[in-house]
Amino acid sequence: MSKRPANSRRRFLKTTAAASVGAATLGSAPRVVGASQAPIHRKAEGPVVISSRNGRNAVEKVMEVLNTGADALDAVVAGVNLVEEDPNDTSVGYGGLPNADGVVQLDAAVIHGPTGRAGSVACIEGIKYPSKVAKLVLERTDHVNLVGKGAQAFARMHGFPVENLLTERARERWVRWRENLSNSDDYLPPHEAHDASIGADYVEQQRTWGTIHCSAIDLSGNISSVTTTSGLAFKIPGRVGDSPIIGAGLYCDNEVGAAGSTGRGEANLENCASFLIVERMRIGDSPEQACLYACERIADHTRKAYLLNDKGEPDFNVQFYALNAAGEVGGAQIRGKNGKFAAANSEGSFLVDLAYLYSND
Length: 361
Ligand code: ASP
Hints:
By secondary structure, the protein is α+β, with helices and mostly antiparallel strands. The protein has a single domain (about 10-185, about 195-360), classed as Glutamine Phosphoribosylpyrophosphate, subunit 1, domain 1 (4-Layer Sandwich), CATH 3.60.20.30. It has ten helices and 15 strands. The protein has an eight-stranded mixed β-sheet. It has a five-stranded mixed β-sheet with strand order 9-10-11-12-15. The chain has a two-stranded antiparallel sheet with strand order 1-2. Helix 1 (about 15-25) runs parallel beside helix 10, helix 2 (about 55-65) runs antiparallel to helix 3 (about 70-85) and helix 9 (about 275-280) packs across helix 10. The longest helix is centred in the C-terminal third of the chain and has 15 residues, at about 285-300. The radius of gyration is 20 Å and the shape is globular. It starts with 12 loop residues before the first strand and ends with a strand. Bound molecules: aspartic acid. Aspartic acid (ASP) binds near residues 229, 231, 241 and 242.
């Protein structure tokens, strides 16, 4: 099962067999449930932050900002900005993999726990920091969602430059995907005369997912969340994923906690999973239990045969990250025992195991 927490994490984490057992009783199918670690209560006075694994540096930045007394929303946006501007993270912001037409279209959303306000942008092009624009939608409009050209015009109105977000690395990956798109068109990827297979398997490897979600509690005990992404690589132009949808890619209730997601957005959209996780925490689930509950819900609702493996299990992955108002964090994913999330408190930053439904063994 999961590894024991390292000494440096002992005060932050404890194993919770009870949490996993509780979650394992949900739903009818006999599924494997990973016994992950779940953090104990935060120190009453200290901030706490959680993010997807690619936020290992971001959570440190968020802690730095929170320790100045900043609002949690300012802190989480400052944290994910590091990932949005990183050309080497091909799942978020600048350097994100483009849609099927080779255009980078970004999604992002924020929620501010203490005021209950939300803001989001979807399919925004040419703007490096969609999370900042989502925050401006929250602060400077009476709306929640802006999409496409309207979102870009709004960003320009607030002084954001329109930039080329397609890096050479991302463009080359898109070209290779395009050239492998179909065996019955005229595009061919680079290949040798003896290469028998230059089709579907290769295409599948290129269809990567990725996103950053981050939630935090600030020094005042207030909670806020952000999720930002370039979405599914090579998606149909105009596709909106779960990340900018309140209740799907993220949800936050200042009295209860926050949740967010990465992975197959369509599954999350069909199940409003982040909202579900917060509501499960409201009735007493730990963050990890609530995340496992959402995984179960998705598994139970997945009926399309092409999404199931030969055991009838979902053949895709979704990860959830949750933080409750007491400062406990936890996460779970549908498939695989090696998943991690990033978290930080006053003792440092850590990678923590995600619980899981199916081990992939
Ligand atoms: N959830 C994101 C989306 O569906 C992608 C991801 O997290 O990988 O757009």
